[in-house]
Amino acid sequence: MAEVEREITQPHNLQELVETEAARLLRSAYLLCGDETEAQDLVQETFLQARKSAHRFRGDSAAYTWLYGILRNLCRRHLRKQGRFVFEEELVLKQSVQPSVTFESDQEFCAATLVGALQRLSAEHREVVVLRYYERLKIEQIAARIGATKGTVKSRLHYAVQHLQGLIPEELNLFAADGTYHRVT
Amino acid sequence: MMNCEDFRNRLYEYLDETLSAEVEAEARKHIEHCSACRYALQREEAATGLLRLSFDRATTHLALRPQLVRDIARGFSAETRPWHGWRQRWQRFVSMPVGVAGASVVLVVVLVLSFATRPRRALERITTPGAVQHETHQACVIEVPIRTQTHVFRRQGGAVVDETVSSAAFAYAKIPEQPQ
Questions:
Q1: Distance (Å, rounded) from C-alpha A73 to C-alpha A71?
Q2: How far is A107 from A104, CA to CA, in rounded Å?
Q3: Which residue of A lies nearest to B58 if distances are taken between CA atoms?
Q4: Given this model, what pLDDT does residue A150 score?
Q5: Which of B46, B71, B79 sits opposite A175 (nearest CB)?
Q6: Contact at 8 Å (CB) between B10 and B23?
Q7: Which of residues 37-66 of B touch A (CB under 8 A)?
Q8: Contact between A174 and B50 (Cβ < 8 Å)
Q9: Taking residues A138-162, what's their average pLDDT?
Q10: Other C-beta atoms within 10 Å of A67: how many?
C-alpha cells in the first residue's frame, strides 16, 4: 500500500493518469454538469487537487475511483455555487426537453435529448444514473462509491429512470421493451 | 417461492448477476410464470441499453483540450518545485513588451537613486553654517537660514547644551573658546 502511495505522488505517474483517465473523467463530468467547458475546467481542477492530496490516497481503490471522488466533490460544489444543486424538481419535470439543434440521425437526437433530460434531475438522481448507465457499475459498487446503502441506490435509480421517462417527449418511445425507439416526424 | 415484490427488489442484482445461485434460480423461475415481472425486466434491459448507447454517443467526441493537458502538467511541476513560481514570474517579466519592461527598470532605478541620495542631501543641509547673530561669554545665538529657527547653545561645565526645544535639526553652532 505504501508503495502505491509513493508511486501515485510522483508527478510523472499523475501525468500518466491524465493520459489514461482524463477522457473518462471528462465524459463523466460532462454528464454530471451538462456543459463541456465546465467539464474541462472541473477535470483540470480534479488533477491539480489530486496532486495536492496524493498523500491521502490510500491505494485500496483504483486510481480512477479516487479521481472520481475528487471530481464528484468539485461537481457538487460547482453546482451548488451555480444554484443548480437544489431546485424544485417537480416544477422542471413538467417541462419537456427538446434539443434546439438539428441532428444527423435519430440516435444523435435521442442521445442529446437524454443528456438534456439528465440535467433536469436532482444531483443525487443524476449521479446514480451516470454511475449505473455510463460507468456501468453494479449496485453495490455504486453504493460504495457514493457512500449510501444498496437500497438507497436502487430507490434513486428507480425514480431517476421514471423521471427520465417523464422528461422525454412523448413521441420518443425511448423505453420500449424491445430496446428500440420511434421518432414521429 | 419468490413473489413479485421480492423479484422487483432484486431486479438490479439479477441484471448484475450478483444474486446467489439459489436466489437467482428462484428469480428465473418466477419470471417464467410472471409476465408483469418479465416485462419489467425487459423494460429495464431496454432502458439500460438505450441509456448506455446514448451516453456513449453524446460523450464520445469529448477529449481534454491539449492546452489543458499542458496546464495540468505545468501545475504538477510548479507544485513539485517551489522555486518554479519565482522562475515563472521572472519568465513572465522577461516576456513583457520592451516598453513596459524598460519603464519598470527606469522606475526601479529612480527609486533606488532617490533613496540612496536622500541621506547625503540632509547631511549637506546640516553642515551649512548660518550667520552668528549674537555671541556672549557663555553662549552664542545663530540664525539658521533654512528654516529661520533660533537656537541657544549654552556651555555647562565641559558640555554644550541646546536649551531650545526645536524639531529642526539643521543648526550649526560655533561656541567661542572660554577665555583663559
A1: 5
A2: 8
A3: A111
A4: 94
A5: B46
A6: yes
A7: 39, 42-59, 62-65
A8: yes
A9: 93
A10: 24
- Cβ of B72 under 8 Å from any chain A Cβ? yes
Q: What are phi and psi of B144, to 5 degrees?
A: -95, 110
State CA B73 to chain mean position distance. 21
Instruction: Verify whether the Cβ–Cβ distance B18 to A176 is below 8 Å.
Output: no
Q: What is the ipTM of this complex?
A: 0.77
Q: Is B75 on the interface with A (CB under 8 A)?
A: yes
Q: How far is Cα B144 from Cα A52, in angstroms, rounded to an integer?
A: 66
Helix (H, G, I), strand (E, B) or coil at B111: helix
* Start-end of H helices in B34-82: 35-59, 66-80
Using CA coordinates, name the residue in chain A closest to B72: A44
pTM: 0.61
The pLDDT of A60-79, averaged and rounded, is: 85
Are A134 and B13 within 8 A, CB to CB?
Answer: no
* pLDDT digits 0-9 by tens, B28-54: 999 999 999 999 999 888 888 888 988
Unique residue bearing C-alpha cell 513539485: B80
Highest mean pLDDT among A57-66, A79-88, A165-174, B131-140: A57-66
Instruction: Say how many residues make up chain B.
Output: 180
List chain B residues with CB under 8 Å of A14: 76
Range from A25-39, A95-109, B55-69 carrying the lowest mean pLDDT: A95-109
- Among candidates A44, A154, A164 on the partner chain, residue whose Cβ is nearest the Cβ of B68: A44
Encode B91-109: b = buried (16+ Cβ within 10 Å), e = exposed.
eeeeeeeeeeeeeeeeeee
Across the interface, of B42, B55, B64, the residue whose CB is closest to A134 is B55
Q: Name the strand (E) or helix (H) holding B152.
A: strand B149-156
Q: B58 near A115, Cβ under 8 Å?
A: yes
Which of A19-23, A83-87, B96-100, B147-151 has the weakest average pLDDT? A83-87
Q: What is the DSSP letter of A95?
A: S
Tell me: pLDDT of A135 over 70: yes
Cβ–Cβ < 8 Å for A73, A29:
no
